[in-house]
User: Which sequence fits this backbone?
């Protein structure tokens, strides 16, 4: 009666039974597909998510009825079947049904060794996974003789105060219950949530008739796949172990057999050619019909092939990309599906050298993984030393307490950066990501003595300048010596996939690029222009720095102008070079932003030098330096505030930009339409004042050169007030580019340079769900972006909206910006591929739904 | 025909003619009132605003027709009549109609001297105000003989190439045109706008028949009022000058006559008793019927009294208040009208000592007027020196480059503060306003040498410690020596007026008070509780500071707790004292807010001392101090971030608050409901975590003492994010108090400590309409207040909303907060009276319209 009213909760998998991946999980569905392809899959029953959840609550399905599917005295396996195999699940349990009687039967049919081995194996699995006994007590050493079985049964009795269960229904019930409960445990839940599973993800289970693999002769089990999980190249790889079960062959060292003749030793191809031929055929079938590279688990018993299971081939990010492209090229999947099969973030790892994960690691200090990739070089403690070594073509690693803008040239010269202080968005981290330099910050266990030029590691070793270390920016570690490396090779497939992605994408992707090298990278990664070119680094060249300092010390406008005039030709050349590289693509140049004191020396020695260079007395220099120092430089006299109070700087920069625009087009390049961006705006009037001066400079350059050119003037929205007042600001701006770094700092009242000290604990305790400098804070900063975008567009329906903070390359941020109707995102060159792919994912995923774009 | 279609634009003032203050101005209306009171006002015609505006554009009314009102050959005066007399206007011009013929007639009727005097006077006025000739050329020296008249006429001809006009219609036309155009000039417009006039404010004119005052005997003119413009006390004050016109008597030195016998010399009361009696009667009439203390301008010609004009008695803020209260007490005006007659800001000046404006001023340096009032004392250059002098009861002035929290005790000890750096919201300025200390900041023309302990003034004088100076915080100046002072005397009327204000007010006013002295002041000024009690100053006492430092250097929670346990009893006593003073009124205590590095010494010497005190080596101390230093302390590890990462501090403070609550009620005081406020919140979870700990401390204290008490836990909204997320934050908060200082900093991305360097220029250039730290930025910060209030109330309909930034005491901010539905404002004790009065103004002004309060 009950069976007629409620479904039994389990379903035998047949070609036509109702198996649904959303109810029974991926493994159950995959097994049904194998069955439909006529593969010899042993009889299998699937338990759905609800049933397993009920089991975890103590309510079992009709076990006797379930057992009846398999005929009398079966031996069974139970395996997990969640929606996504990556979410993990309890270990498979084999040989359910082994008891004294089965042992006797098996001794007869397969011999005593085989019977003992299976019984011992099951007692151990049951003891550990069901009765939660200590696994160490069950180590299966020695020969699987009768004594070992007796000992195991006695141990089980001793520990549990119960005899080992002999009834198969009891065994199966307890196994199902244990697996169902394991899924509900906190650790398992956290683990799978970390892998992207929803909180209420369900577990299905598959109960399968055992194919024993312990029979006579060549009986055994193995695993085969048709592609390399490391390179993604097509090749037959497999292992087989006689008298084994499940995946034993993968872990065995000794008597393992290989699949094909091409592999090292004795092969199935030679000894069991029929089985081999079937496996090859099954490989083709799975690839073409399951549309995926599968790893097939099989058992051969008495020359009879059984296919027990198939899973996606575990693979490196790189292999995943190559497999996806190959499947699409073979027309097995569509190009869009190939795009969707490559997680955007997985590209990052392919763009950088990596420390060989197999190589030895001598970690000298750990910190925050601030910029991925790895590099080896000699330790230097100053930018000057870095430049000196770079001049001799020696690789070096810049090690600093923290970096300042004065270290930019040192960072350019170094192969990697290690800092004692700072967080994921500290100066060192931001610049390193921009440069694509491996970087570890906040390595606060090391002690730097910059005078003595020593680095004391966490474990007390003392390194000095010139010692070789390796920075693993992906792992956030510094390693002693030159670690073994894996070099990146982007290859044809990489470009092909991104090319397919670009076809689908509907939001622009630009790069943040300050230098010709950055710009070149931006081109390589097919960025659609430069969304943020910071100009301050252009003032740190020795000659320019002196002119800057003269400018700072000048009291009269003419003198400031004269000092800046010396920088003008150099800056013009900088811009012309950028324009040439970008070949007519948009280049957004942010006008000078940092506080002037960043250009002044700090120590007494530096001030004395400067005094001499400027022919002033040291007291005057010291006073000026002190007068310019600020309590909170982030919130001080910088950006447009400087542009308004010392207008000569912007005048010079505007002239350099416009003259470079003409120069580069005269050289026959594509015409450039430079975008001039005003930083740190908080009021409309600031834009009006700067715009009037910039327009005047443009008019003057046009008149002097007798030639016309276009340019756009826009505003960097990075204060909360600029976002709130975007409506009126946009009336004077051709574009609004949202600087989410500063906007996050000001919205939270949180300096990214100082947040490192507690951000870790804050995220750990869940005070902030994520580091807002790492993942865009949708609730707070995001609302300001939405307000700014909406009001900006209302104030000026033609305004172009972009985002140029560090968040620009994050897939989540791109989704947010796309929803808010932004025209483009801009990010570090190395994140451009990630952004292009992420944007394509969003566009494809919302296909049909259409882009939720603000009507313009 | 034309006259029938368009009104003539002028109206003779009669008791019943249509004179309207909104069209003809205050003077015209006042004259009509005098006429209605049967005073002998000469025939008068009023020109309305439109007519005068048309005149300025060249379109004159029918002058002949206007003249016809006055009969043949009149002599006339023209005076300005704007809506509000305070808005200024062109000078009156008398004796229009004087020409050769009139001169001849007057010579006959009044004698040659009188005729010459009037003619000369008119030629000069006409030349200067109509023909714009140099006033110096017309100095009326020497006797007014025929030669002088001839010379004046010749000078006029020479300068203008035209004869002096003889036709009265021409004279009047030109005078009207000149006065109309003067009103439209830029300077006049800026001047009156600065006094609160709208951009389109109109000018009316009154044309009046002259009462000459140059007749025989005692003929002349004078001015009388019945109240002191300085003290507001009732007394007859008047001056009269024979053979004079207009207000000559006020400026004359010699032969002036007084009004009443009680005054110094010969009096009108004696020599013209009938006129005197009439004037006394007119005084009573104006006071009772015009409901104001008026100054009456009169002329006596041949014993005949003429009333020419009456204006509000010019008065000091203090006199204004006393007059308003007296009028209300005499039931001439209502109490509410008295309240409305006192501008809120005018109270500030009454609360502080002032430098006597008549006394000599030797200014040594100018800066920003950061906190009003004046004080004299000896210069000290350190807080230590300030405390030392205070201990000897010697008044001292603390002079610093800038102040830091370590200077708090020095500021408490000093009588006034002078700093070289900082703006209106620098540390020195904020604290000084809170303490009611006169303060000048940003006096960057002086040079401080704190080592040599000298102050070099702008003009090169060098002062040393112990030299006496006076700080005039109202003028923003430091004066040499002990300047002459005027002491404040609030008096009974002050309290009476505020009592009336409180009856009308519908938004609460609390005080920001950190110390018992502040709290006492808050009580004196009838604040309704403390809206912000900052607790950091409580840690700067020598003994506590050492415990704080021990806490900072402790590595384990127990050690931190042990160090803080030593501060607990002192802090408990602090709070108990505050609660006793506030007698059951709400006290909002902000938990510890500043970064820890503020509690560490700065120089090498200080570190060495600290190392000895803590028994550590200097290197370890230096390293810890360096490790705690921050790039942007404002955006760093402070407020709730400290509360979460070093929770022992808030635990101790909560315990101190709750134990003090019980202690003070055990002493028989009114029960206190302390309000505990969490600073720098940016995420809901911060509130949840702190709330859980505070609630636990409360439960523990209740259990230990076996007694119950109430408390409220609230949040200081001072990050943009907290305002945006106020909805969810309010769910865990009994109140939200908006800290507009920090909110302004973060909304603009602008540090108040650093803004001083360019704020002046920014406001001058109109980049910001106002300094946003001084006047609430309604467009940006204001929108966040509105968003926060609205969402907070939606999230928790019982939440109490307050504002506790420096803006809290500004009338404009109070208006804004009232409109946004806030429950109270909190401000420095010295601004409480201003706030109470401003709030009353708003409530009365919106009476009928009702308070635009958000529905709860």
Assistant:
């Amino acid at each position: 009666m009950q069976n007629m009213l409620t479904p039994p909760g389990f379903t035998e998998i047949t070609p036509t039974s109702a198996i649904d991946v959303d109810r029974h999980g991926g493994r159950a569905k995959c097994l049904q597909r194998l069955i439909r392809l006529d593969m010899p899959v042993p009889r299998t029953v699937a338990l759905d998510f609800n049933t397993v959840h009920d089991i975890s609550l103590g309510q079992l399905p009709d076990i006797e009825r379930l057992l009846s599917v398999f005929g009398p005295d079966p031996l069974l396996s139970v395996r997990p079947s969640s929606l996504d195999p990556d979410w993990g699940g309890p270990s498979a349990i084999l040989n359910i049904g082994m008891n004294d009687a089965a042992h006797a039967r098996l001794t007869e049919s397969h011999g005593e060794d085989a019977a003992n081995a299976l019984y011992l194996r099951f007692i151990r699995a049951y003891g550990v996974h069901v009765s939660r006994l200590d696994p160490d007590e069950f180590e299966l050493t020695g020969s699987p003789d009768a004594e070992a079985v007796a000992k195991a049964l006695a141990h089980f009795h001793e520990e549990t105060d119960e005899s080992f269960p002999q009834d198969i229904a009891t065994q199966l019930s307890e196994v199902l219950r244990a697996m169902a409960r394991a899924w509900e445990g906190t650790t398992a839940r956290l683990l799978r949530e970390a892998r992207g599973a929803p909180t209420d993800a369900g577990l299905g289970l598959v109960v399968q008739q055992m194919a024993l693999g312990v029979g006579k002769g060549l009986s055994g089990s193995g695993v085969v796949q048709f592609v390399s999980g490391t390179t993604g190249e097509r090749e037959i790889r497999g292992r087989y172990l006689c008298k084994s079960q499940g995946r034993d062959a993968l872990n065995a060292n000794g008597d393992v057999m290989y699949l094909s003749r091409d592999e090292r030793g004795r092969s199935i191809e030679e000894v069991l050619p029929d089985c081999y031929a079937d496996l090859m055929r099954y490989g083709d079938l799975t690839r073409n019909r399951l549309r995926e590279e599968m790893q097939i688990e099989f058992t051969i018993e008495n020359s009879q092939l059984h296919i027990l299971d198939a899973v996606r081939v575990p693979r490196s990010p790189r292999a995943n990309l190559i497999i996806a492209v190959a499947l699409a090229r073979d027309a097995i999947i569509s190009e869009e599906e190939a795009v969707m099969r490559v997680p955007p973030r997985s590209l990052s790892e392919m763009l950088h050298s990596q420390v060989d994960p197999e190589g030895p690691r001598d970690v000298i200090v750990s910190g925050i993984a601030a910029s991925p990739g790895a590099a080896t070089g000699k330790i230097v403690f100053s930018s000057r030393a870095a430049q000196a070594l770079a001049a001799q073509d020696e690789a070096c690693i810049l090690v600093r307490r923290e970096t300042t803008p004065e270290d930019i040239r040192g960072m350019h010269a170094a192969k990697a950066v290690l800092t004692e202080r700072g967080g994921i968005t500290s100066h060192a981290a931001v610049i390193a990501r921009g440069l694509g330099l491996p970087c570890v910050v906040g390595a606060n266990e090391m002690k730097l003595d910059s005078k003595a030029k020593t680095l004391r590691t966490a474990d007390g070793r003392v390194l000095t300048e010139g010692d070789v270390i390796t920075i693993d920016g992906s792992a956030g570690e510094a390693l002693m010596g030159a670690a073994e490396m894996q070099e990146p090779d982007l290859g044809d497939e990489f470009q092909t996939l991104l090319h397919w992605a670009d076809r689908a994408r509907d939001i622009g992707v630009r790069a943040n690029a300050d230098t010709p090298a950055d710009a070149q990278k931006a081109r390589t990664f097919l960025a659609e222009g430069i969304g943020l070119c910071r100009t301050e680094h252009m003032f740190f060249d020795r000659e320019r720095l002196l002119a800057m300092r003269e400018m700072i010390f000048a009291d009269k406008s003419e003198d400031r102008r004269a000092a800046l005039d010396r920088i003008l030709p150099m800056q013009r050349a900088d811009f012309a070079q950028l324009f040439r590289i970008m070949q007519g693509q948009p280049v957004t140049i942010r006008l000078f932003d940092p506080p002037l004191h960043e250009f002044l020396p700090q120590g007494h020695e530096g001030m004395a030098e400067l005094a001499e260079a400027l022919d002033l007395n040291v007291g005057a220099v010291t006073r000026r330096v002190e007068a310019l120092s600020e309590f909170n430089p982030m919130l001080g006299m910088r950006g447009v505030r400087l542009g308004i109070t010392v207008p000569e700087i912007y005048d010079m920069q505007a002239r350099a930009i416009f003259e470079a625009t003409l120069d580069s087009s005269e050289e026959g390049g594509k015409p450039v339409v430079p975008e001039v961006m005003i930083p740190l705006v908080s009021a409309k009037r600031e834009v009006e004042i700067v715009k009037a001066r910039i327009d005047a400079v443009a008019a003057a350059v046009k008149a002097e050169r007798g030639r016309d050119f276009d340019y756009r003037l826009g505003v960097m929205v990075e204060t909360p007030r600029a976002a709130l007042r975007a409506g009126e600001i946009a009336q004077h701006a051709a574009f609004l580019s949202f600087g989410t770094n500063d906007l996050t700092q000001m919205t939270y009242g949180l300096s990214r340079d100082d947040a490192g000290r507690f951000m870790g604990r804050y995220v750990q305790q869940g005070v902030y769900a994520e580091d807002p400098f790492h993942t865009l804070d949708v609730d707070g900063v995001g609302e300001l972006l939405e307000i700014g975008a909406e009001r900006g567009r209302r104030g000026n329906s033609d305004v172009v909206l972009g985002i140029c903070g560090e968040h620009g390359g994050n897939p989540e941020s791109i989704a947010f910006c796309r929803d808010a109707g932004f025209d483009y995102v801009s990010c570090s060159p190395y994140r451009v591929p990630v952004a292009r792919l992420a944007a394509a994912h969003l566009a494809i995923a919302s296909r049909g739904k259409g882009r939720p774009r603000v009507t313009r």
